[in-house]
Amino acid sequence: MNFITTSFLGVHVADIEISRANPYSKEETITRLQDMTQKMEDRLKLKVAWSGDQGQFSGPAKGAIRVSESSIDIEVKLGLAVKLIKGKIAEGIEKGLDKALS
Question: Residue 100: exposed, middle, or buried by beta-carbon count in 10 A (0-12, 13-18, 19+)?
């Protein structure tokens, strides 16, 4: 899987980086995040593909989600048109994570 951000590939710098402790098993968290990203696909016109413990998304924003036993790491590279609302996007991701992990 090709990731677009610095810590995953060393190519581009992420506009948004979010890291959270993983409160569940890796499998449980992946299931919860897959549900969350499905809603994002429908609402935000994103394409999301999961492979094992890693998810990749593309559309107005591109990025990656990586789940380990101890953490959830999300990196997002924003398209030019959505950079102006970076704060709202980061807030939306945080809220989505809160809901998915509650």
Answer: middle
CATH architecture type of domain 6-100 = 2-Layer Sandwich (3.30)
Strands 71-78 and 47-51, sheet pairing: unpaired
Burial bucket for residue 86 (CB in 10 Å: 0-12, 13-18, 19+): middle
- φ, ψ for residue 15 (rounded to 5)? -80, -30
Q: Which tens digits make up the pLDDT trace of 15-70?
A: 999 999 999 999 999 999 999 999 888 888 889 999 999 999 998 889 999 999 99
pTM score: 0.84
Domain ranges of the chain: 6-100
- In angstroms, what CA-CA distances link 84 with 15, 61, 62, 97? 11, 12, 15, 22
